[in-house]
């Protein structure tokens, strides 16, 4: 991967981290499901809840395109872009 792409990814990650911390972050919401529900107004599906609560170091996920689209629309709505 070119150095420029890595720099862009690093900036994006730092921006996302600041945004996450501004939402309260893990200290205020130790349960990720509660964070999603209360702070983001998103209700995780059963599968998403299982993933959010899984403490495995490595985790492989399957994500159906329609689920991604639904989640993306929900996020856009919460962010006022929908």
Topology (SSEs and partners):
Layout: H1 3-22, H2 25-28, H3 32-39, H4 46-53, H5 65-78
What does this structure look like?
There is one protein chain. This protein has 82 residues and is mainly alpha-helical. The protein has one domain. It is 66% helix and 0% strand. The chain has 5 helices and no strands. It has helices at 3-22, 25-28, 32-39, 46-53, 65-78. It is globular and about 40 Å long. The N and C termini lie far apart (33 Å). The mean pLDDT is 76.
Q: What's the helical proportion of residues? A: 55-70%
Order of helices and strands: HHHHH
- Give the tally of β-strands: 0
Terminal-residue CA separation:
33 Å
Task: Specify Rg, calculated over alpha carbons.
Answer: 15 Å
Query: What structural class should be given to the helix and strand makeup?
Result: mainly alpha
Count of all domains: 1
What value does the average pLDDT take? 76
The major pleated sheet works out as: none
Number of helices: 5
In the predicted model, the low-confidence regions spanning at least 5 consecutive residues are none
Shape annotation: globular
Indicate the proportion of strand residues.
under 5%
């Amino acid at each position: 991967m070119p150095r420029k792409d890595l720099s862009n990814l690093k900036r994006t990650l730092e921006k996302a981290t600041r945004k996450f911390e501004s939402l309260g972050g893990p200290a205020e919401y130790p349960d990720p499901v509660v964070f999603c529900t209360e702070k983001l107004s998103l209700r995780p599906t059963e599968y998403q809840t299982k993933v959010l609560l899984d403490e495995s170091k490595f985790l492989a996920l399957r994500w159906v395109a329609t689920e991604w689209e639904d989640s993306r629309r929900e996020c856009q709505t919460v962010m006022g872009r929908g």
